[in-house]
Amino acid sequence: MTVSADQALDLYRVMATIRVFETTAGSLFAAGELPGFIHLSSGQEAVAAGVCSVLRRDDALTTTHRGHGHCIAKGGKVFGMLAELYGRAAGYGKGRSGSMHIADSSAGILGANAIVGGGLPMALGAAWSAQVRGEDRVAVAFFGDGAVAEGVFHETLNLAALWRLPLVLVCENNRVAEMTPSSVHLATTRVADFAGPYAIPGATVDGNDVLVVRDAAATAVARARAGEGPTLLECETHRIRGHFEGDPLRYRSAEETAAWAARDPLVLFRARLAELGVPSARVEAVDTEVAAEVRDAAAAAAAAAPAPVSSLLDDVRPGVS
Ligand SMILES: Cc1ncc(C[n+]2csc(CCOP(=O)(O)OP(=O)(O)O)c2C)c(N)n1
Hints:
With about 325 residues, the protein is α/β, with parallel strands linked by helices. The chain has 11 helices and 8 strands.
């Protein structure tokens, strides 16, 4: 799948927006500005940008506790997300959900999810809904290697394969769940191998190369849209920051950090943009615009009204105690 210079620059803009968003959120959290908890996806931008670049707005996705990047790449608004992180009434969850429950159904973002593996059956449901209604929408479930040993992962694969649902399962394999290496909890650490027993296509790709991810996702999405069923796509990647902000990263060696720093998806793609003939001035202009967008959104979110305490029980179903 070839990309034009403009398409490549669009992909770069998405990745740069995610990186700046995450760095900004990390700084705000460290400064004590954000209530709640955040998990940042720095280093994994190419997966979000590559997969979402081949989705339509009416396609659905579910994401995880580490979902900011997926939401941005699918068309989520930076202000709505930051306002949510700040606990503002103008946030996506009216300031009551926080980072791990950001959703925007108008952009097909069915939600982040604090429960590891929790988004998988929801995406399955969205895919089933599209099939039942005879619509050519697809659903994508993003999840980490930490979800792969869960029963719900296998149940989702089984049903999606059995009913040939338009579902793309995207595993961001960063090889560690919290502090537990996948070799400790997975019988096979090559996640794509789990496609075999369910007789669906499985592929392992370089999750730090946005064009490679985009190609693999395009194949999987085309297959799903054509009614041919699900694909398991494993993207090998690296989470640069800790599992949570403040994680001292004692489980990571300096060598591993250095090796992956050389494969930072933004660094790799800047080099690729140069090869594609995109002038560096255009790349720098994107960097400037993205920095301004996130800075302005953060300032507006900081200045926005907090969610009133009186709204705490709004939207909670009456009669449920
Ligand atoms: C069902 C469930 N079990 C345990 C947890 C605690 N927990 C939160 S994040 C996490 C690790 C998830 O790892 P992975 O799925 O690989 O995603 P990553 O953090 O690497 O993006 C765990 C065990 C949880 N939130 N939900």
